[in-house]
Amino acid sequence: MKRGEDFALAMRGGRRAGRSTLVAHLWSADLDTPEPRVAVARTGPARAGFVVSKAVGPAVTRNRVKRRLRHLVAARLDRLPGGSVLVVRALPPAAAAAGDELARDLDSALRRLGGSG
Q1: Which of 34, 86, 93, 104 has a Cα-to-Cα distance from 22 of 20 to 30 A?
Q2: What's the pLDDT tens digit per position in 19-49?
Q3: Among 113, 52, 40, 33, which Cα is nearest to 79's?
């Protein structure tokens, strides 16, 4: 995902679940979330985007966290409802977290959001 409207849809109109290393935002028509103000495809595969701010660390660290999250989400994307939009925001502890801790937090957040996990 690259469009700001898609990020805003999930972050402002979707559900949110926070964990120690990340915050997941999920918008899906299947989860009774509010109707979007912008046109969004309700069919097709689920999409994901990532927010990793400078608070997480320098560029090398941010990119490593983003790659790790991208890998974890790719393995779970097919479990989300079709047409849904997922935004994963990394928190500063994500920089020092082990891969299994990130995976646990992501699975826990997705279960909380109703997107399986």
Answers
A1: 34
A2: 999 999 999 876 555 555 544 555 678 899 9
A3: 113
